[in-house]
């Protein structure tokens, strides 16, 4: 890969494995480097991996949404860019 193309890559933040209840019970913080993060045990977390089950979904309205449950809590997801994200 040419050297000029490599400079365009941005290092991605670590995606931590968290439970939904950990996310809901944490403190939200804004920073200049991203859209924001949550603080958990002194860590600033801006990306997460969640293993959960979709328990409800809706394609009505302007944005599709789904509710997921991982056994610890439930959270609503909303798709803004891909209107067919929850259709499968």
Structural write-up:
- 10% of the residues lie in helices and 36% in strands.
- It has two helices and eight strands.
- It has helices spanning 3-6, 20-24, and strands at residues 15-17, 27-29, 37-40, 43-45, 47-49, 53-58, 65-69, 74-78.
- It has a three-stranded antiparallel β-sheet with strand order 2-3-4. Strands 6-7-8 form a three-stranded antiparallel β-sheet, with no helix packed on it.
- Strand 7 and strand 8 form a beta hairpin.
- The mean pLDDT is 86.
**Helical content band:** 10-25%
Class inferred from helices and paired strands: mainly beta
Number of strands: 8
Whole-Å distance between the termini?
A: 36 Å
Average pLDDT number: 86
> How many individual helices?
2
Quaternary assembly:
single chain
CA-based shape: globular
Beta percentage is 35-45%
Topology as a string of helices (H) and strands (E)? HEHEEEEEEE
Unreliable stretches: none
| Rg | 16 Å
Q: Kindly report the spatial arrangement of strands forming the biggest sheet.
A: 2-3-4
Largest sheet: 3 strands, antiparallel
Produce a short descriptive summary.
The protein contains 2 helices and 8 strands; from the N terminus they run H-E-H-E-E-E-E-E-E-E. The chain has 88 residues and is mainly β.
Question: How does the SSE layout of this entry go?
Answer:
Blueprint: H1 3-6, E1 15-17, H2 20-24, E2 27-29, E3 37-40, E4 43-45, E5 47-49, E6 53-58, E7 65-69, E8 74-78
Parallel strand pairs: 1-5
Antiparallel strand pairs: 2-3, 3-4, 6-7, 7-8
List its traits:
36% strand; 88 residues; three-stranded antiparallel β-sheet; mainly beta; 2 helices; globular
């Amino acid at each position: 890969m040419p050297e000029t193309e490599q400079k365009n890559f941005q290092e991605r933040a670590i995606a931590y494995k968290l439970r939904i209840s950990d996310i809901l019970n944490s403190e939200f913080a804004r920073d200049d480097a991203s859209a924001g993060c949550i603080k958990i045990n002194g860590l600033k977390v801006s990306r997460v991996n969640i293993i959960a089950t979709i328990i409800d979904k809706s394609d009505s309205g302007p944005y599709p949404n789904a509710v997921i449950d991982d056994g610890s809590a439930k959270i609503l997801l909303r798709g803004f860019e891909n209107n067919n994200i929850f259709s499968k």
